[in-house]
Design a protein that fits this description.
Blueprint (H helix, E strand, L loop, with lengths): L6 E3 L2 E3 L3 H14 L3 H12 L6 H13 L3 H14 L4 H14 L3 H13 L5 H33 L7 H5 L3 H10 L9 H9 L5 H13 L6 E5 L2 E5 L11 H13 L4 H17 L10 H15 L8 H14 L5
Antiparallel strand pairs: 1-2, 3-4
Helix pairs in contact: 1-2, 2-3, 3-4, 4-5, 5-7, 6-7, 9-11, 10-11, 12-13, 12-14, 13-14, 13-15, 14-15
Length: about 325
């Protein structure tokens, strides 16, 4: 009768069949979503033998599921080094671990190289494109969160108290507001409200502060007074200036009028973008879209030296808006 073979390591004796039973149990744990137990069983097996690609791939997946991402990535790299028939499946897992480890540039580079080398079979191409798009979205979101966190860490809320804010130059006021564009402004929303309502507030400062509150849909009542007009508004229900119907209508009309005058069209569009912000939330007050379009075309024609019959009251209004929209660069 042949002798039974015993596996030993560190003076521990494993009886025949024990390793196979551990392998089976590990795979059963993984199949039943008991990934912590599966990892323990796989690691017990791997203490005695190297493991084949089926075992290692299941082990890597289980490691990923219990968020041991560094270890999961290392096992995937081991499989690549061995040469695995499960290359695509392992690569998907590898890229997922790299995303969890915030190695977004590495993921993009790997997918680009695989596509350039035609290493992805057609049936898996859509999945890799999905991974690539997801990686880009997560990377962008992470970058925005990091920027916002940094801004909030360095934000001095006292800068937005009325006395402190309005003792600053107009340039500094613009800079302080632009600092908030990627921050959560809810903690200082009331301070922005007071800035907007302050009698000394420049119309463009009012607009920038209001724009930020509208972007973040802050619900509150604000009384806005500018250019002799007053209205009570709620930022959570306002449209952003570029989305207002009258803006779209004016732009449509001037585009039709100036199809053959590209330089004039560029200048008119530039002025409209500035002026709709400085009048926000009123959007040029009581003027009609047709009149505004004619007025801006006439105004720019005059800038280019073409004098003609025009609505001088409207031209003077446009000139006033241009004066108030000229802010220092921040």
């Amino acid at each position: 009768m042949p002798k039974k073979k015993y596996i030993t390591k560190n003076n521990v004796v494993m009886f025949p069949g024990t390793i196979e039973r551990l392998k089976m149990q590990a795979h059963q744990y993984a199949g039943n979503y008991q990934y912590d137990k599966a990892v323990d069983a796989f690691e017990e097996v791997l203490a005695y033998e190297q493991g084949d690609e089926q075992l290692l791939s299941a082990y890597a997946f289980s490691l990923f599921e219990i968020r041991r991402f560094e270890d999961a990535r290392a096992v995937c790299e081991q499989l690549f080094a061995m040469g695995t028939d499960l290359y695509i499946e392992v690569m998907e897992l590898y890229l997922s671990t790299c995303m969890e480890l915030r190695e977004f540039q590495h993921v993009e580079k790997m997918i680009s190289e695989l596509m350039n080398e035609n290493a992805i079979p057609p049936q898996a191409l859509e999945q890799f494109e999905h991974i690539r798009a997801l990686n880009a979205r997560i990377a962008e979101s992470a970058a925005q969160k990091e920027t916002s966190a940094h801004i909030e860490e360095t934000l001095d809320e006292t800068d937005y108290l009325l006395d402190a804010f309005f003792e600053q130059s107009l340039l500094k006021q613009v800079q302080l507001l632009r600092t908030l564009q990627q921050a959560n402004v809810r903690p200082i929303a009331k301070r922005l409200k007071h800035i907007i309502e302050h009698e000394e507030a420049h119309p463009m400062i009012q607009s920038i502060a209001l724009y930020i509150l509208v972007e973040q849909q802050i619900a509150m009542s604000i009384e806005v007074t500018k250019f002799g007009h007053t209205a009570t508004v709620d930022p959570s229900t306002l449209q952003l200036p570029e989305n207002m119907d009258i803006v779209a209508r004016v732009l449509e009309i001037v585009e039709n009028k100036l199809q053959q005058e590209i330089s004039t069209l560029d200048m008119v569009q530039y002025l409209i973008a500035r002026h709709v912000l400085v009048t926000y939330p009123f959007a040029w007050f009581d003027y009609e879209a047709e009149d505004l379009a004619d007025g801006y075309v006439d105004y720019v024609h005059q800038m280019f030296g073409h004098i003609q019959e025009t609505d001088y009251e409207l031209i003077n209004f446009i000139m006033e808006l241009e004066k108030f929209s000229e802010l220092p660069e921040a």
